[in-house]
Design a protein that fits this description.
Elements: E1 2-6, H1 10-21, E2 25-30, E3 45-46, H2 54-71, E4 80-81, E5 85-89, H3 94-106, E6 112-113, H4 116-123, E7 134-138, E8 142-144, H5 146-159, E9 163-166, E10 169-174, E11 179-183, E12 188-191, E13 193-196, H6 202-208, E14 226-234, E15 242-244, E16 249-252, E17 258-261, H7 277-289, E18 298-305, E19 315-317, E20 325-329, H8 333-350
Parallel strand pairs: 1-2, 1-13, 2-9, 5-15, 13-20
Antiparallel strand pairs: 3-8, 4-8, 5-7, 6-7, 10-11, 11-12, 14-17, 14-18, 15-16, 16-17, 19-20
């Protein structure tokens, strides 16, 4: 079976690798190159921490487990680390953290309270905020080095015969027996199935096939899909896990580098303008306070724009029974790429559905207007 995958982000690479391993004829297309979209700007925290919808939490727990399996099978340097995560609360946020821990424990999600001394041992060379009043440890969580994950997925896909190519898809065709894509140069490529995994561009591409995939698309200052990530190259930090505090979140990025985000500052980020110097200065000051290192930190900033279905939940499956186009989009791409890649490949190859995906079919939007679709809570960058 020949399968064309549109979009070479982490989801597209994940399903391409799974299909190629299954022996299918795979062509992975991207207009800009692999991993250049949302997958290039992600906090990359693997978790099911703030995903309280039962079906969505089960899917994310399965995604975390799949990372551990995949890590033993991918070629090249290790990209997944089950480091655990620490969440520090102050008097303003302690009640929220307490409620979250209690809820997660009721769902049998590993969560426990730790004292400051133990938290320092878990976290490594970092200064916990003085205002911290409670610290929760989530030992099953971790992080990914996205560039290495992308490289491993693509290398393994190509090793099993997949072709990865530049190509801008501008149209789709579908009949009872075949599917096709039309490229910007006019070339038409036929296949048995098409997987649409184009991240935040999925809704516009789906519309070219007559498919409605409602997504949040407003990219402006204050949009919940817009945020800022800082990439710290100096000072080098011996950070051992993902660390969340009220003022700054941190994750290891390899070689002593660190990725940081300040969720409370995201509302002021303008994606159409250079990073505001005052915002950058605040993040630098907060990072310095957590490292006790002399001198001004060296931080490069990137504006991140997330891939967000209109109701906040993953979309996986054909838009209607019998369709040869399979839609795949989520805002939890890093956590879910391995499990969605495997399950989508299994559904495409076998023609049989997988229970974990039953709550996430595109058909749930049928008959609903965009105004009927609301995310249950505000989405904050980093909550993969």
């Amino acid at each position: 079976m020949k399968i064309i995958i549109v979009g070479a982000g982490v989801l597209g690479a994940g399903v391409a690798r799974s299909l190629a391993v299954a022996g299918e004829d795979v062509l992975l297309l991207d207009r800009s190159g692999a991993g250049t979209g949302t997958s290039a700007t992600t906090f990359a925290w693997t978790n099911a921490n703030r995903k309280h919808d039962p079906a969505y939490q089960r899917l994310n727990v399965a995604g975390m487990a799949e990372h551990a399996v995949l890590a033993e099978r991918l070629p090249g340097p290790r990209s997944y680390f089950r480091s655990g995560s620490l969440h520090c609360a102050d008097p303003r946020t302690e009640s929220w953290l307490t409620g979250n821990v209690e809820l997660l424990q009721s769902l049998d999600y590993p969560a426990r309270w730790v004292e400051r001394a133990e938290a320092r041992r878990i976290a490594g060379d970092v200064v916990l905020p003085e205002a911290t009043t409670a610290i929760a440890h989530f030992p099953s969580e971790g992080y990914v080095l996205p560039e290495l994950l992308m490289r491993g997925l693509l290398d393994d896909a190509k090793r099993h015969g997949a072709e990865v190519s530049l190509g801008e898809v501008v149209g789709f065709g579908e009949s009872q027996r075949k599917a096709s894509v039309t490229l910007s140069g006019g070339e038409i490529i036929e296949s048995d199935r098409v997987v649409l995994a184009a991240g935040r561009w999925t809704d516009a591409l789906a519309a070219k096939a007559g498919i409605d995939i409602p997504m949040m698309t407003d990219v402006h200052r204050g949009s919940p899909i817009v945020g800022l990530l800082g990439y710290v190259t100096s000072p080098r930090l011996d950070l051992n896990c993902v660390l969340h505090t009220p003022s700054l979140n941190l994750r290891p990025a390899g070689n002593g580098h660190t990725v940081v985000q300040a969720l409370d500052l995201n509302a002021g980020v303008d994606p159409s303008a250079p990073v505001d110097p005052e915002t950058a200065a605040v993040i630098m000051e907060r990072f310095s306070a957590m490292t006790a290192a002399p001198g001004r930190p060296e931080i490069g900033f990137r504006v991140a724009i997330r891939s967000m279905p209109a109701d906040g939940h993953t979309i996986a499956g054909p838009p209607s029974p019998g369709s040869r186009i399979y839609c795949l989009v989520t805002h939890s791409g890093i956590t879910l790429a391995p499990i969605l890649g495997r399950l989508a490949a299994e559904e495409i190859v076998s023609g049989e559905t997988r229970d974990l995906l039953d709550s996430f079919r595109p058909g749930r939007f049928a008959g609903l207007s965009r105004s009927d679709l609301t995310i249950e809570r505000p989405v904050r960058l980093g909550e993969q």
